[in-house]
């Protein structure tokens, strides 16, 4: 179908040998015409057989030698060899649905003024553990309830118009050398230059990641929460941003959780049970604010699962408070993120330039 838009799919992968047969196989089973899209896998210095395995499905495999540079760098290198008018980014641990690619294209056709669009995890996460199910289903629930214009972007299953991605300056591969908030930061720049970002929750993928409680804590603090709070403080909208996890109800729930926690500590210090009343009131309000979430978990996983979610979700708000406070503290003490290095420093790190200037329509690329 020559009238169909030509798309490029860029997937960063590091040590993803066990995942690629499922993730790349699902892409090849898509219902969008196979001659209207290309698949580019960027092997970020894997120590397993990721690169060779990816070559079975991908049109182009970009191999980054030496040490890994992170998904921001990898996605930029994939973009540089791409040809599509729409560039889609999928993580190596997500399985697209048969209609995912087509739905992205149709969404851009329906919204000609949209610069970027992202989707959602579905409600069928593959990992069986409680923490994995909670984490992936929470992501699904949040995205399902926030359809429409967004202040941020998500690269797990997101797409950008080529010219918008170029104009925004691509991913910030200097400040984000590992998986962090490089997609959120990119979304802020896309919005700053005047383009809309849309969340279309009907565009879905299945997440394969296995979560542990320690992994959730580490990710929420060091990889997402604190960097995001620092970014918001740097932009001056730490309190006013109201997208996704930053809606006013989420901010209020975080504040109430911490008030209840402090009251609990006070009851232990002063041996005065009256403080527990404040704790009980705060926790009750937080639970009421999250009734739609708990009802969702009850519907898809049953009442026992929903009850187990309550304390874990309270921990989520505790981590939010730590992230917010730490991010603001670091912003005050350290200031803005370190400046971009000189061209010579970039060369030593293997980073080509900032802002990068894409080399369009190249069929091969060597890092």
What descriptive keywords fit this protein?
alpha/beta, Spore Coat Polysaccharide Biosynthesis Protein SpsA, Chain A, 2 domains, nine-stranded mixed β-sheet, 13 helices
Q: SSE layout and pairings?
A:
Layout: E1 7-13, H1 20-28, E2 37-44, H2 50-54, E3 60-64, H3 71-80, E4 86-90, E5 94-96, H4 100-110, E6 114-121, H5 130-144, E7 148-149, E8 157-161, H6 162-168, H7 182-192, E9 196-207, H8 213-235, H9 248-270, H10 274-289, H11 291-301, H12 303-334, H13 343-349
Helix pairs in contact: 8-12, 9-10, 9-12, 11-12
Short characterization:
With 367 residues, this protein is of the alpha/beta class. It has helices at 20-28, 50-54, 71-80, 100-110, 130-144, 162-168, 182-192, 213-235, 248-270, 274-289, 291-301, 303-334, 343-349, and strands at residues 7-13, 37-44, 60-64, 86-90, 94-96, 114-121, 148-149, 157-161, 196-207. Strands 1, 2, 3, 4, 5, 6, 7, 8 and 9 form a 9-stranded mixed beta sheet that branches.
Number of folding domains?
2
Structural class: alpha/beta
CATH hierarchy class name of the largest domain:
Alpha Beta
Termini, distance in Å?
34 Å
Number of strands: 9
Q: Uncertain spans, ≥5 residues at pLDDT below 50?
A: 353-367
Instruction: Output the CATH topology of the largest domain.
Output: Spore Coat Polysaccharide Biosynthesis Protein SpsA, Chain A
- Note the total helix count: 13
Query: Judging from the principal axes of the Cα atoms, what is the shape?
Result: globular
CATH superfamily of the largest domain: Spore Coat Polysaccharide Biosynthesis Protein SpsA, Chain A
CATH architecture of the largest domain: Alpha-Beta Complex
Rg measurement, Å: 21 Å
Mean pLDDT: 89
Which band does the percent of strand residues land in?
A: 5-15%
Helix amount, in percent?
A: 40-55%
Order of helices and strands: EHEHEHEEHEHEEHHEHHHHHH
The main pleated sheet reads as: 9 strands, mixed
